[in-house]
Amino acid sequence: FGQLNSDRIGHFAANTELYLCERDMGMYNRRTLDVFYHSSLICNHQLKKMWDRTLRVSRFARPIAMINRWLPGSESHVIPIPSDRDIHGLLPRTKVHLSFTSDEEHLGTRLLREMGIPANTPFVCFHARESIYLNSVQPYRDWSHHDYRNTNIDNCIDAVEELTHHGYYCVRMGSIVKEALNTDNPKIIDYAAKQRTEFLDIFLGAKCHFFIYSGPSGISEIPAIFRRPLVCANQIPIFFVPTIGHNVLFIPKKLWHKTEKRLITLREMVETGAWKFQRTKNYEEIDLEWIENTSEEISSLVLEMYESLNGTLQTTDEDDELQQRFWAFFPKNEIHGKIVKIRIGADFLRNNKFLLD
Questions:
Q1: Distance between alpha carbon 39 and the CA centroid of its chain, in Å?
Q2: Which residues are paired to 232 by β-bridges?
Q3: What's residue 103's pLDDT?
Q4: Would you say 252 and 348 are in contact if contact means Cβ atoms under 8 Å apart?
């Protein structure tokens, strides 16, 4: 018996998908019969519907699981659901486990047209993590410990404006947002502010050409479980970047030492532990503040993904050397699966070689 993390979309998507990937790879006893139940809050009913037809889910599993906790040997009857980190590199080696019905495919295609995206036209999704979502859906909790992860959506506008010149439509994702986008480009659709539905949250993430997210956020796990390419701006902490990801590009937030009035290096991030910090106070306690990626840095990263997917990206031997030097600063036994396949934005590394000092 096991509980699905139905209240947070990132965990609902990633943890569940990785459980199925681990089963596919023979990491569980195949003689067991696993039955799930949902947590009390459902963050997305379309995702729930899709998991319900993929897994064995029963409301009766909850009371049985509660009774089981009081019995000797209860651990052997609890499903060891993995975290949302693909430490074994399973996503690139396994199939996608969710699928849309024919009716859902027709519905999604129709809704795309109604949004203004012509048939057979490529589109990308983009999202910036903001504090307003968690503060709205769970106001009884203090979420300020996540402030370091929040970003400004305006820094993504130049990047998606550029993509529209290459034939893309660009869809701004999000459930609850602070304000509408500041653009009059008809190819940039402010779906989060105007047309958002739980069904389209999943359909768009599954069908986009690639997904751009600024700041770690749960919605990015939807394209991840459908094996869509990811562009990760403002990654913080570096420790949680999906290093074994397939078709993933990222750039981190930089860290500024307020007393010494300078940016710190990767070596200093490792020595202070800042490359792992998961709470706002961790940074404040050693006088650090985080610096968001600029619109120019994000635009360069997005263009690199565009060129990579279209086979026109050109890198140099120096770029490859900078990539290797970047990862050399981090303890190999603490990196996802001890293997690095993800790439840092080439232009970002060229312009920030001080990080490697």
A1: 21
A2: 213, 250
A3: 98
A4: no
Backbone φ and ψ for 303, nearest 5 degrees, come out as -65, -35
CA torsion 138-140-141-142 (nearest 10°) is 110
Per DSSP, helices labelled H in the chain are: 9-24, 45-52, 61-68, 102-115, 132-137, 157-164, 191-194, 198-207, 221-225, 266-272, 280-285, 295-309, 317-327, 346-351
Alpha-carbon gap, residue 19 to 94, rounded angstroms = 12
pTM: 0.91
Q: What is the full DSSP assignment across 71-114?
A: STTGGGGS-----S--TT--GGGS-------HHHHHHHHHHHHH
- Do residues 335 and 243 touch, judged by C-beta distance below 8 A? yes
**Cβ atoms < 10 Å from Cβ of 326:** 20
Secondary structure class of 352 (helix, strand, coil): coil
**135 or 328, which is more confident?**
328
The pLDDT tens digits of the residues spanning 9-23 come to 999 999 999 999 999
Residues 6+ apart with CB under 8 A from 148: 236, 253, 277, 279, 280, 283, 290
Looking at per-residue pLDDT, the higher value among 205 and 131 belongs to 205
Q: State the pLDDT at residue 133.
A: 62
pLDDT score at 15: 94
Query: Who wins on pLDDT, 177 or 131?
Result: 177
Determine if residue 287 is left, alpha or beta; phi over 0 gives left, psi from -120 to 50 gives alpha, anything else beta: left
pLDDT, averaged across the chain: 90
